[in-house]
Every structure is written in C-alpha cells, then in structure tokens.
Specification:
globular, 12 helices, 2 strands, mainly alpha
Length: 317
C-alpha cells in the first residue's frame, strides 16, 4: 500500500505553484515579444500534448482508450476547459499585471462552489456566502471601481472569462476523473486543445520565424536578450510539463482540496515575481483587495466536501 507523506506532497505543490507563477512572467515576455495569445496557446497545447503522449504511451498506454460515449465530453473539456482557459489567461496577462490576471482567474473555485450549491444542490457550508461576499468586495477593491475604471476593460473581461473557463475545467474534470486517471485525461484534453487551435490556425500558417528572433527579457533584465524559442521551451517543459507532473504526483500524498488551497500560493508568487522582474507594482488598495479575494477563495474551497481525485487548480494556469 502506498504511504501518504504530507511533507513531500506539500513540497511538490509549492514547487509547481512557483513554476506556474514564474511562467506568467515568461509568457508575458513572449506576448510582448511578438507571439499572439492564440499562437502561444497553440504552441503550449501542442507541446504539452506531445510530451504527455510520450509519457503515457511509455507508462500506461491502455489509459488512452476512450469509450465513444465519453469522447464528446472530453472534447468539450479540452476545448473549453483547457484551450479557452489558456487563451483568455494569455489575453489577460498581456493587458493586466500578471498578479491581477491570475487573481481574476483564480476566482474559479467560487464559481464551482456556487454551481455545486445552487445547480447540483450539494451540501455546502453557509460559509460560501461569506466567501462570495468577501471575494466580490475584494475584486471591487482591486478594480477600484469607485474611482472609475483603472484596469484595461478587455483584460478584465478576459480574466473573468478565464475564471469561467477554468470552472468548466473543474466541473467536467471532476466528473471525468471518476473513471479516468488524471494524467491520461489531461493528455487527451491537451490533445483536443491542440487539435482545436490547429483547425483555427493551421500549422502551416504558424509564425515559426518569430521563434528565432531575439527578445528582450524586459524589466530589470531588459539588457539581456534570448531567442524566443528558449522561452517557448520553458513554457512547454518547466511552465507546463514539470509543474503539471508535480501537481498530479502530489495527489498521491494530499487530497485535491489541500492541493487547491496550497495552490493559492501561485497568484501571490506571480505578483511578487512580476514586481521583482518586470516592475509591475500593485497599489495598496489592490494588495488589500487581492488578500480579500484569496481569503474568500480559501473559505470557499473549505466549504465543500473533498473530491479525492478532482484535478487541482494548478494544471492549466
């Protein structure tokens, strides 16, 4: 019997969260350096699918078998839960500070808890009302709505859209993971995401030439330049595959709810990294609002019973 060890589990989750957080700044540099949000999503999906496919074929190829009745649901999961989430997130970080974009996206657990409570009528603690109120007030403070719009409207819409798409990822994933292991499910999801973007923009139209162009690392590293493909390699390997593997492996030691809660390190770390690297400073009101949102999400996460195999929040950020 496999022995659960919380220490290694928490270490895996925190490491994954930090890698995903750093990936936010790396992705923003790629977007400013000439990649569109669509190109970046297509590249990440295809790269992640290729590597995951090799891993699954080498370790558990039988898990890739999909009953015909499940295929449409997995396709929707890949297109809405993975492709849309990533694309909207990239649009958001192109127009907003990385920390705020992630903060908007990470309100997805609130939507999931609301879905469970009001649509599926599952037992949820009354604390969910506190969570919703606190987080909505926090978002209002972040946007500083009393002084007029201070954030890019399209960026805010994209961030909120990413939260809804991520909520779809959680809801469908919770259903699908009951009969499939998380690794093969995510491999298939990335596969459908890659297929979707390949149809939207065929690979022969992909701007491969831009990958060889030098790009400034911006901010405090603006005097340094690297080929864009270096950052693309980071995006796929250290920004997707490694943290994904760590977050999945952590489920052998921790419950999904614990993984999701510790994963809230990500938006905080992303804001700190973006500040130290890019100089993206948040105002006092935005920091206070961000703390309110994070606390609200934590309360929401603990208001619902555990789902042992549900995919953690780290997987698509």
């Amino acid at each position: 019997m496999f022995q659960r060890r919380r220490g290694p589990g928490y270490l895996m989750v925190v490491t994954a969260a930090l890698l995903f957080a750093l990936n936010g700044t790396v992705s923003k540099i790629m977007l400013i350096g000439g990649m569109s949000a669509q190109n970046l999503t297509e590249l990440r999906s295809a790269g992640a699918f290729t590597v995951l496919l090799v891993i699954v074929l080498a370790t558990a190829p039988a898990t890739l078998r999909v009953p015909l009745r499940e295929l449409p649901l997995i396709a929707v999961y890949g297109v809405l839960g993975v492709a849309a989430t990533q694309w909207l997130y990239f649009v958001a970080i192109r127009r907003l500070p990385v920390g705020i974009a992630l903060l908007l996206e990470f309100t997805a657990p609130l939507l999931v808890v609301s879905w469970a409570r009001f649509v599926k009528h599952e037992p949820v603690s009354n604390r969910v009302w506190v969570a919703l109120t606190l987080s909505l007030c926090g978002l209002a403070v972040v946007a500083q709505i009393w002084g007029g719009a201070t954030l890019d409207p399209l960026g805010v819409v994209a961030g909120i859209g990413a939260a809804f798409a991520l909520a779809v990822y959680f809801v469908l994933g919770e259903s699908l993971v009951s009969s499939r292991d998380p690794v093969s499910l995510t491999c298939l999801a990335f596969g459908f995401s890659a297929l979707f973007w390949s149809l939207v923009q065929p690979w022969w139209n992909f701007p491969f030439a831009v990958l060889s162009s030098p790009v400034s690392l911006l901010g405090n590293l603006r005097s340094h330049q690297v080929p864009l493909w270096w950052l693309a390699a980071w995006l796929v390997v250290l920004g997707t595959i490694v943290p994904f593997t760590l977050s999945i492996a952590s489920l052998r030691h921790l419950r999904a709810r614990q993984v999701g809660l510790v994963g809230m390190v990500e938006p905080v770390a992303a804001a700190v990294i973006a500040y130290l690297w890019l100089g993206e400073a948040l105002g006092t009101a935005q920091i206070v609002g961000g703390v309110m949102v994070v606390v609200g999400v934590v309360i929401a996460e603990t208001s619902r019973a555990d789902t042992a195999g549900a995919p953690p929040a780290l997987e698509v950020a």
